[in-house]
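Throughout our pipeline, every protein is held as a single compact record rather than as scattered files. Nothing more is needed to write down the fold, since each code stands for a local backbone conformation. For reference, a complete record is included directly beneath this paragraph.
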Amino acid sequence: MCVLLHLLLVLSIIQCSEAGNKSQEVLHQCRDEEKLSISLCAPIIEVINQYPKLYTDRIHDPMYYQNLEKLCQEAKGCVSDLNCSEADALRNDIDKVCSYSLFFYAENQKCLQKFHQKAYVANKTEDSSCYAKFPSFQNEMDKKYKTFMEGEECFMNHIEENCNDTSRKFFVKSYNYLVEYMTNKPEIRTCDPYHMFLEQECMGIFAELIDVATSGLSPLELVYNWFMNDRIVSAKMNVLVCSQTFHYESRKSATL
């Protein structure tokens, strides 16, 4: 019995040692030849990063998404055989950059704007749906992050019911990155993802304003409602606040 226990102990030590060596192999600092391979991947990652700017006029074309997705797969393949720490970090960066660039596909933006619109309406009415848990104009980023992480099921139900198949797959895969973008307000303001996602929130409120203002009204009724309807007046004020916040921070970004 003692011999058997000793043998099992030795085998356990060997297994732990092998696991430790494997972990060290994955996380070792990249050698010069591996760093060279990483540097050769850099151009395609930069193309992915610049893709939304290069093809702004094509964001409504499904090929925008498909072509960009192919570039992302190519970038991941570029570092797939490298098992060192810098390559592992680069893989995470590729996922993050791809999530940001793929978001610009018009259907993805439309899907998120619709979510913000529903959340805005839920907070302005006695709506008891889960959308009411997402307050508009949440400036405390820790609370906003917690709300989105705890409300992931609500968001996923939204995309299931309101978004196309491409957007559903995208948000399921990229949700954590998008929450990070929405809640990571930089101390030094630059042109960054945070402000772009703030704009999406503004657009959601603006969509509600348009929906209410144009819901089967005659021109005369439209003019009357535009100035007298409490819901429209409130939405106009909130659009103004949201847009002023966005443009104010954007201007500060440009001057800092």
Remarks:
- The radius of gyration is 24 Å.
- Confidence is low (pLDDT under 50) at residues 1-26, 246-256.
- The CA atoms of residues 100 and 213 lie 32 Å apart.
- Residues 2-27 form the longest helix (26 residues).
